[in-house]
Amino acid sequence: MKRVIGLGAGGHAKVVIEILRQNKRYEIAGLLNANEELRGTDVLGIPVLGDDQQLSALFEQGIRHAFIGVGSVGGTSIRRRLFELARSHGYEMVAAIHQHSVISPSVKVGHGPTVMPGAIINTSATLGDNVIINTGAIVEHDCIIGNHASVASGAVLASTVRVGAGSHIGAGSTVRQSINIGENSIIGAGAVVIKDVPDNVIVVGVPATVLRAREQDLLDGVNSEAPRNP
Question: For the chain, which ranges sit under pLDDT 70?
Answer without folding.
Answer: 74, 216-230
